[in-house]
Amino acid sequence: MYKEEDFLQLSGIQHFSYCRRQWALICLEVEWEENDRTFEGRLLHEKAHDPFIKETRNNYFISRAMPVHSYTLGLSGECDVVIFYENKNGINIIGKTGKYLPVPVEYKKGKPKNSIDDIVQLGAQAICLEEMLFCSIPYGYLYYGETHHREKVEIDQNLKNHISNLCNEMHEYAKKRYVPHVRRNKGCNACSLKNHCFPEIYHKESVNKYIARYTEDMKNA
């Protein structure tokens, strides 16, 4: 169990799963830079988070930008959308008749990925909702802006265990203020933080050439 003052950003678990260094630069070093991808993603989330958009049907209602937290994971943040479906195995909601099952929906720009990075963020939201509302959430959805389609994600115990391990590792990094070293991969060029992560000089010349050039400049100064 974590204390509130030790809570980390829930959205950070997606960055941490994708790249430990990216997460550390954003959450520990407070580095950020916008690019086309992050801008489009932000617009998509702003629309999903609009609390003034109300939607109610006979068998469900929607909550947007819903604040959530988990003491077991040590996370807090917001769910883009939570759909409360009427379900006899659900929970009571103040002001509503019947019982409802909360189902988180996380909005993402682009299209479904082969990685688990988006899934762990959705799963963490489900764990937060389960802990806050005393219920069991068997599934959630990932909505992708490029395909305009929702992907159903099963929230099973294996996923929960993986999320718990990620969160424990995140808290260890945060406690030590540890920023991992650069490990380049094919996703680096699309990352908005690439100029913060490895300045241009490091992938244009070797370290030895840089030292030699710097030494020569100091001699001529």
From TrEMBL:
<keyword id="KW-0479">Metal-binding</keyword>
<protein>
    <recommendedName>
        <fullName>CRISPR-associated exonuclease Cas4</fullName>
        <ecNumber>3.1.12.1</ecNumber>
    </recommendedName>
</protein>
<keyword id="KW-0464">Manganese</keyword>
<dbReference type="InterPro" id="IPR013343">
    <property type="entry name" value="CRISPR-assoc_prot_Cas4"/>
</dbReference>
<keyword id="KW-0411">Iron-sulfur</keyword>
<dbReference type="GO" id="GO:0051536">
    <property type="term" value="F:iron-sulfur cluster binding"/>
</dbReference>
<keyword id="KW-0378">Hydrolase</keyword>
<feature type="domain" description="DUF83">
    <location>
        <begin position="11"/>
        <end position="199"/>
    </location>
</feature>
<dbReference type="GO" id="GO:0051607">
    <property type="term" value="P:defense response to virus"/>
</dbReference>
<dbReference type="InterPro" id="IPR011604">
    <property type="entry name" value="PDDEXK-like_dom_sf"/>
</dbReference>
<keyword id="KW-0051">Antiviral defense</keyword>
<comment type="similarity">
    <text>Belongs to the CRISPR-associated exonuclease Cas4 family.</text>
</comment>
<keyword id="KW-0269">Exonuclease</keyword>
<dbReference type="InterPro" id="IPR051827">
    <property type="entry name" value="Cas4_exonuclease"/>
</dbReference>
<keyword id="KW-0540">Nuclease</keyword>
<dbReference type="GO" id="GO:0046872">
    <property type="term" value="F:metal ion binding"/>
</dbReference>
<dbReference type="Pfam" id="PF01930">
    <property type="entry name" value="Cas_Cas4"/>
</dbReference>
<dbReference type="GO" id="GO:0004527">
    <property type="term" value="F:exonuclease activity"/>
</dbReference>
<dbReference type="InterPro" id="IPR022765">
    <property type="entry name" value="Dna2/Cas4_DUF83"/>
</dbReference>
<keyword id="KW-0408">Iron</keyword>
<comment type="function">
    <text>CRISPR (clustered regularly interspaced short palindromic repeat) is an adaptive immune system that provides protection against mobile genetic elements (viruses, transposable elements and conjugative plasmids). CRISPR clusters contain sequences complementary to antecedent mobile elements and target invading nucleic acids. CRISPR clusters are transcribed and processed into CRISPR RNA (crRNA).</text>
</comment>
